[in-house]
Amino acid sequence: xxxxxxxxxxxxPRDQQSDASxxxxxxxxxxxxxxxxxxSGSINTKAMTVEGQKRKLEESEQLLHQRRDLIGxxxxxxxxxxxxxx
Length: 86
Fold this sequence. Notes:
Layout: H1 2-11, H2 16-84
Helix pairs in contact: 1-2
């Protein structure tokens, strides 16, 4: 299609065929542009999703560490109570 359009532009006057070629080329360009925009949006969405998942994982790890610390403190407190009983 592009070669036909280039041939018309180089060798002849504009006519209905060249106008139709330009219209076809514009339509294909618009479809490609739409597809690229769609892909770009999808990539951004997935990247945001991955970043969100990473944040959730980091938050979960932090909560897990806090829980372990609290369990350790609880265990120490219980052991001290047991030792202090007569």
